[in-house]
Write a structure and sequence with these properties.
Elements lengths: L1 H21 L17 E7 L2 E2 L10 E5 L4 E5 L4 E9 L4 E4 L3 E2 L7 H13 L2 E5 L2 E5 L7 E5 L1
Antiparallel strand pairs: 1-2, 1-3, 1-10, 3-4, 4-5, 5-6, 5-7, 8-9, 9-10
Length: 147
């Protein structure tokens, strides 16, 4: 009888252990407050430094249009746009090479760095009204503020 109790107890413990291993991992719910689409994001920092523009009225920005999965914006000198891919549950993003006009201006180096940051980013984070575009686990490539 004693062996039967030990066997039954062992069997129950094994079932509990196996069923706990087979449970599905819980997915964190998507925080709708961190939805970065349909907002205008204005550039504030590049590579950890505040941007300094010769023409402050032409501040770089972009907007993600969810309906057609396209981004559009202005680099400071030229209009920019293209397609993007996003996985909000994983905070992953990918900007695809798009189009740009070809107008020269004094802030062209900032525009190039802005576009390089967009194309290099593979993930993002949101804190309040601040969006950070990141590459892997490195420091943010660029930071933006929403309107």
């Amino acid at each position: 009888m004693k062996n039967l109790c030990y066997s039954l107890s062992s069997f129950i413990l094994m079932i509990v252990f196996v069923s706990s291993c087979m449970s599905k991992p819980s997915q964190a719910p998507i925080d709708v407050n961190n939805d970065i689409t349909e907002k205008v994001w204005t550039l504030t920092e590049l590579n950890g430094k505040p941007i300094v523009l010769k023409n402050p009225k032409a501040r770089p920005f972009f907007k993600l249009n969810k309906a057609d999965m396209r981004y559009e914006g202005h680099g400071g000198c030229n209009g920019v746009g293209g397609t993007f891919e996003i996985k909000p549950e994983m905070m992953r993003i990918k900007f695809n090479q798009g189009m740009s006009t070809m107008i020269a201006c004094d802030d062209l180096p900032t525009e190039r760095a802005f576009l390089d940051a967009l194309l290099a980013a593979d993930n993002y984070s949101v804190s309040g009204k601040t969006l950070s575009l990141n590459k892997a686990r490195m420091a943010p490539l660029a930071k933006f503020e929403s309107q």
